[in-house]
Amino acid sequence: MLAALVLACGPALPRATGEIPPADVDERFGTDVVVEAPPPVPREELGVAQLVEAKSGSPVVTLRVVFDAGSAEDPVGREGLTRLAARLRVEGGAGERSVAELSRALYPMAGRIEVAVDREQTAFVGRVHRDHLEDFYALFRDVLLRPRHDAADFERLRARAQSALSLELRGSDDEALGKELLHAMLYEGHPFAHPVLGTEAGLAAITRDEVRAHGERVFCSGRAIVGVAGDYPEGFAARFLEDIARLDSDHCVGRRVLPEPRLDGPRIWIVDKPDAQSVAMSLGVPIEVTRDHPDYAALTLAAAYLGQHRTFAGWLMNEMRGKRGLNYGDYAYAEHFEQEGWTRFPRPHTARRQQYFSFWIRPVPRERAHFALRFAVKAFREKVARGLSAEDFDRIRGFIDGYFALYLQTESRRLGFDVDDRFYDAPDPWLEGLRAQWAALDVDAVNEALRRHVDPSKLQIALVASDAEAFAAQLAEERPSPARYAGNVPDEVRAFDANVERYRLGITRERMRVVPVRELFR
Amino acid sequence: MGSSRLSLARAAPALALLAPLWLHAAAQQATAQQATAQQAHPLFDAAPQTTRLPNGLTVVSVPWSTPGIVAYYTLVRVGSRDEVEPGHSGFAHLFEHMMFRGTEAMPGPVYEERVQAVGADNNAYTTRDFTLYTLTAPATALESLVEIEAERFQRLSYDEDVFRTETGAVQGEYAKSASGPFLPMWEALSELAFQRHTYGHTTMGYLRDICAMPTRFAYSRRFFQRFYTPDNTTLIVVGDVDHARLVSLVRERYGRWRGRRDQPRVQAEPEPTEGRSRHLPWDASTPPRAFLAYRTPSFDGGAARGAARAAAIREAAALELVKGLAFAEPSPLFQRLVVDERRLLELSAWERSFTRDPGLLVVTTVLAPGEGAPDFEGITEAIQAELGRIAAGEIEPEQIEAVRSNLRYSLLTDVETPSDVADLLGNFAAAGGSIAALDEYLAALAAVTPGEVAAVARRYLTPTRRFRVTLAERSEADGPTPTPAPLCPEPTGGAR
């Protein structure tokens, strides 16, 4: 048996996190392969599934099976394959049950089986009341171990993905579109470039057999971290782990090697979206800092100071929204961030081996957009160069020391963060590690880390706007863009803005690209 | 600093039904004026405790096992429903933003510093019926939370410049939603279904009114006096909290708060006599979409007590069961339209969209894109036929029990944090006048009979009470694409 029990807080066992030759297309795909197909990886090199337990008195039992596999594993020409393989497991039939029978079985117990896919992780999450754990688990296990891959389910879910990509992402959410555009810029020619949803051509080309084969390659026990939280019975966790350990075959392969992002200077790409009334903005640069890096705590603190997600703790939010009323919100991030539901806290399982440092500037009315972009770019460059003051440092450290604990309010979320610690082989639990490092930091160390890792000369700026050609020309001309205020503002704001109005982006028209919305993600 | 939300429906759980053993406790609780800490509760570690101060402020606490966290929620029963003056839609929501601007003794930045000093999560949202201020923080900060919240709720103060600046943030909030079809569809549906009542405009407000907000400073000050009053406010505190200590702190800090809530004349909407439809062209890509809504009664029938109230809440509960039967994933309709025939990509009904005044049961659909015109009529007929089947009583009792069980376990698994508890209670207090509404509702859900399920479908879910908004990519028949215009015709107030 390959399974090994690793209890919560116990030492991590070696796992398939090394740079094993990449998973890639098998011969059936036969299309434009960029990375050479690797030899099959012996299963023993894949390591074994790890278990993270969080036993408690909570009546809600949460099961997490998180694979080190995301859309970065999509073969070239089959973008969207990993997500489709994941969704076909939770939204298709499994074992003896059709999708209708599965949903009828889950419904009375309000059991939920969901999956979330990011660039490098796929997380299957089950939740049920302890009254129904055994019945639920039988279904959950089938979903993971015995997916049916029925043709009708495959066609239905592919059509759903095609609509989500081609019609909804392009036409219903300019902010999400801007964030995907930023990925395309940061990671051009890299497996992170395309949306998790895929590309039009990729989704069109995928076959049901490919979905099945891909799942067998990447949803393997050697890539799995298995987590369970709540009031589950004695022996349950071991059984769970043994079951997941069965996801093992000669088809299993390790993660693909990631190339370094290649950027040679600042750029602006603008999605031309004729109906857009405002301009959505995302800005960022790749960084080499991930959660296991010694400077992670410093960059996290700096990002919180600049723009803790949807709070007024951040500088950008206070300046751009609070003092100037430019838009609804302005935030900064030291790693990829997705909000969990209605909370303002990050969803677990978006761990990545490569990260980026970014600003999210929420839509600004067109007539104020040039000014707002100048404001954000100036802030990005100058805050990196000058850093925080000692006073800023003390205030924000005090805030995040308490606030980040709210990320872990439920056992399910604590389990999620524990699982991600294993992804990074982090020596300490996420929050404890951060707190200890924050306590040991001083402002100079934070500012040095910012300068060391965040390189504004590579700044990538993703915009969504109508009449994008005209907007690009306006940005390239660098003419003043006067601030417009709804109310009188203090003199210091006016003085600051006098510099913003004429601030040079310094990005020539040649380094700008206008992309018609219908040409994105083809 | 928060957001406008559609209603008390959120992505959250359907409301639960209690097992028979719980029902007894719930029914008892429903009639109790004040619970004691020892009383068991079906959902919470112990029953909520309620104290009403002489000035009318209601203080609720619920003990809840947490890692040292407390949710400090302030419910003000004012929403876009109260925006009766023409041209002032969206004001309750704008005002929610103003509440973060501080007082003379505690200016906005100082308020924010105090919040940050304890590492709190601080936000708010506004709906048609209420505004909920949501603070979550370490329990050790309770005294500090009482102090800063008491200060801003009694002595909010801001000048006209700050007010005008904040209207820009609201305009930005509208802008962020305007790129999706939800906002225009909901706006159109509200207008279609309510021609007299203020539910006819959204909580976000009309864009034209948002653009005019900078000129409404004086109105905003009156708004605070009219609605931010102790008799219109409920504090809900959940987590590591001792009720007696809480009440003592609150009495000290809020005890001198005075004021009576204004009662604007909200016009009643006549009962509908015929359904209506509207189609919206969309100038970006989208799959075809349809919202179907049925006029339904208010949560409590407008009755504070007695048989009329109980009957209304029972109907509200029966309608929740209908939603599960008709639209949940295992339902025959879902399986046919989404899974087998693949005519729909999505089908769902908003859960718990309870309102103070007669409101809407909303069903949302996303149609599979295809050649030719979208088959909105076919989808509408299929939904209506299924509701007709339920109305005719052609539902097996075990199907109803499956929905009951789902609602019960959904609630048990989804109410996890102090914030979840406070939000749930806040929503029920807003719809039903006090937190007892939750227990009344739970008791009703447990008791609804198959006959009642059929009866509410017959009574309310008929074509004559149905309003439909459809949306699809603009076709030639829709006319030419309008020229893009600035969000607001003039910059708000102009550059100064």
Quickly describe the structure.
The complex is a heterodimer of chains A (522) and B (496). With 522 residues, chain A is α/β, with parallel strands linked by helices.
Instruction: Round the Cα radius of gyration of chain A to an integer and report it.
Output: 24 Å
Q: What's the helix-strand series of chain B?
A: EHEEEHHEEHHHHHEHEEHHEEHHHHHE
- Helical fraction of chain A equals 25-40%
Secondary-structure element order of chain A, N to C: EEHHEEHHHHHEHEEHHEEHHHHHEHHE
Low-confidence stretches of chain B: 6-38, 492-496
**In whole angstroms, how far apart are the ends of chain B?**
25 Å
Rg estimate of chain B, integer Å: 23 Å
- Output the structural class of chain B: alpha+beta
- CATH-level-2 architecture of the largest domain in chain B: 2-Layer Sandwich
Mean pLDDT of chain A: 91
Name the poorly predicted regions of chain A: 1-40
> What's the CATH class label of the largest domain in chain A?
Alpha Beta
- Provide mean pLDDT of chain B, rounded: 90
CATH architectural category of the largest domain in chain A = 2-Layer Sandwich
Topology:
The complex is a heterodimer of chains A (522) and B (496).
Chain A: E1 50-55, E2 60-67, H1 81-91, H2 99-106, E3 112-117, E4 122-129, H3 133-145, H4 151-171, H5 174-186, H6 200-205, H7 208-218, E5 224-230, H8 236-245, E6 267-272, E7 278-287, H9 296-307, H10 315-323, E8 330-333, E9 355-365, H11 366-386, H12 390-403, H13 411-424, H14 430-440, H15 443-453, E10 460-465, H16 468-477, H17 491-501, E11 512-516
Parallel strand pairs in A: 1-5, 6-10, 6-11
Antiparallel strand pairs in A: 2-4, 2-5, 3-4, 7-9, 7-10, 8-9
Helix pairs in contact in A: 1-4, 1-7, 9-12, 9-14, 9-15
Chain B: E1 3-4, H1 20-31, E2 49-52, E3 58-63, E4 69-76, H2 91-98, H3 108-117, E5 121-126, E6 131-138, H4 142-155, H5 160-178, H6 182-193, H7 207-212, H8 217-227, E7 233-239, H9 243-254, E8 276-282, E9 289-296, H10 306-327, H11 332-340, E10 344-349, E11 359-367, H12 376-391, H13 397-414, H14 418-432, H15 436-447, H16 450-460, E12 466-473
Parallel strand pairs in B: 1-5, 3-7, 8-12
Antiparallel strand pairs in B: 2-3, 4-6, 4-7, 5-6, 9-11, 9-12, 10-11
